[in-house]
């Protein structure tokens, strides 16, 4: 029997019977057994959720509430998330196989994120009186409307909160769609939003599949779509939003490069790569999946890297010692394995890993894998694998050669440079085409804007810039008033 069984979904702030009696089974990536059954969300449920959101928007109670009231509700949500942090972490580990230590760290990060958004919104200027040549104007920043917030399976709670919280703070109504593969934290979030004081009608949470998501994106009652997921899905969503002239922000894929210059400090580089390349078992859009290393340091770096990777603990994600868990689904494991075979076929060398752990016959595991002898034109260097696979690419010459390899990519989400020279590091950081970059480490800073260039997306998350994605500017001219 599953550990969790839900019969209702949150529509307009109320737990409601779904339109269909069908259930979806949630399968553990660790045991391959059913851990939950949830309602199958249909287009009819999406329609009801959007109708509730539009009605709450029409009533204006939430969007016209004083900003302090919305801030207080979000701060209560942060406190409630802290009270339920252990349960939320266990749910993430159960449904997607992330190591429990990472799941707990992610919940702590999520709580900090919510509080950071509240702090940032408190400091925003929402109205400004600006002088002009023919009289003053009032510049208003107002909520964008009804938001569809679509989050992926690889960070179930955190990536929902990245969207839901700034939308609520700014006064929007929200229909959130977590991934159907990882729905369990969404049910808790719905309960906590109710307890935090979010009014009826303002929020719906519909863990749903792609078909329901497409219906939500195309729904005429949606004013803004915010999406995290694959670049392929992002292109489809952008096309739909363009057709309907909806606002859209997209946080998409990556193929981020770590540049190890000729003065790299190996004892700084390797721990950062073990964290940045294999975080969440490699299932992270901002993972450092290409190591571009100066040829003069190549062998030394690779030897140290392989020693580090071989020391990673692969196993039961419920064990606090585990660092690498299973892939989140059988489909994802098959995808990762197909890329490993493609790398071999193109002539790259598997320096370590490359198979399934012999001591873990059950569960969707892939060994952490390092490729050497990689040319940047190979598929393993150009395409997002979304698994524990790192490609090592040597370069010759000066820093510009490394920068050129880093920029030879359709993506531009993240990156890093490793050098003992701070000025050199900053010069390289300025030239790499990525929305986010780290010097001598691997870091996500929730106080600063995060997002990608090129095929890695549109818009920004975190900080005041993340809040700005849910605000519209309006201008009220007043030519008869004195400037």
TrEMBL record:
Keyword Oxidoreductase annotated: yes
Enzyme Commission code(s) on record: 1.2.1.3
Residues annotated as catalytic: 251
Top-rank lineage group of the source organism: Bacteria
Reactions that this protein is recorded to catalyse: an aldehyde + NAD(+) + H2O = a carboxylate + NADH + 2 H(+)
Similarity remark: Belongs to the aldehyde dehydrogenase family.
Protein name: aldehyde dehydrogenase (NAD(+))
Organism of this sequence: Amycolatopsis bartoniae
């Amino acid at each position: 029997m599953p550990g969790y069984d839900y019969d209702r979904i949150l529509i307009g702030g109320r737990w409601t019977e779904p339109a269909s009696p069908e259930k979806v089974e949630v399968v553990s990536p660790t045991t391959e057994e059913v851990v939950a059954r949830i309602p199958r969300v249909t287009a009819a449920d999406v329609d009801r959720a959007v109708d509730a959101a539009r009605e709450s928007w029409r009533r204006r109670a939430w969007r016209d509430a004083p900003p302090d009231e919305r801030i207080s509700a979000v701060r209560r949500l942060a406190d409630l998330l802290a009270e339920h942090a252990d349960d939320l972490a266990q749910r993430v580990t159960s449904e997607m196989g992330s190591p429990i230590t990472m799941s707990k760290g992610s919940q702590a990060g999520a709580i900090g994120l919510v509080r950071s958004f509240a702090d940032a919104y408190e400091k925003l200027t929402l109205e400004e009186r600006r002088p002009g040549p023919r009289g003053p104007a009032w510049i208003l920043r107002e909520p964008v409307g009804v938001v569809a917030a679509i989050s992926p399976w690889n960070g179930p709670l955190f990536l929902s909160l990245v969207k839901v919280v700034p939308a609520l703070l700014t006064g929007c109504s929200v229909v959130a769609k977590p991934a159907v593969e990882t729905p369990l934290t969404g049910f808790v979030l719905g309960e906590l939003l109710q307890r935090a004081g979010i009014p009826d009608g303002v929020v719906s949470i519909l863990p749903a599949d792609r078909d329901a998501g497409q219906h939500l994106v195309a729904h005429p009652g949606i004013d803004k779509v915010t999406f995290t997921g694959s670049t392929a899905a992002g292109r489809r969503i952008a096309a739909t939003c363009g057709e309907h002239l909806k606002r859209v922000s997209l946080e998409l894929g990556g193929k981020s490069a770590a540049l190890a210059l000729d003065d790299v400090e190996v004892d700084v580089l390797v721990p950062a790569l073990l964290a940045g390349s294999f975080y969440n078992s490699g299932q992270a859009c901002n993972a450092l999946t290409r190591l571009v290393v100066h040829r003069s340091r190549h062998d030394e770096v690779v030897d140290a890297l392989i020693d580090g990777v071989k020391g990673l603990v692969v196993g039961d994600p419920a064990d606090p010692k585990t660092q690498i868990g299973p892939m989140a689904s059988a489909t994802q494991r098959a995808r990762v394995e197909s890329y490993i075979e493609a790398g071999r076929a193109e002539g790259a060398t598997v320096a370590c890993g490359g198979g399934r752990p012999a001591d873990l016959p059950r569960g969707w595991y892939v060994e952490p894998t390092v490729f050497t002898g990689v040319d940047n034109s190979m598929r393993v260097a150009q395409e997002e694998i979304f698994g524990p696979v790192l490609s090592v690419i040597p370069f010759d010459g000066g820093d510009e050669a490394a920068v050129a390899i880093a920029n030879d990519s359709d993506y531009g989400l993240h990156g890093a440079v490793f050098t003992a020279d701070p000025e050199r590091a900053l010069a390289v950081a300025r030239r790499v085409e990525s929305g986010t970059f780290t010097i001598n480490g691997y870091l996500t800073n929730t106080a600063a804007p995060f997002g990608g260039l090129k095929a890695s997306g549109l818009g920004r998350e975190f900080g005041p810039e993340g809040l700005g994605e849910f605000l519209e500017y309006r201008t009220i001219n007043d030519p008869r008033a004195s400037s």
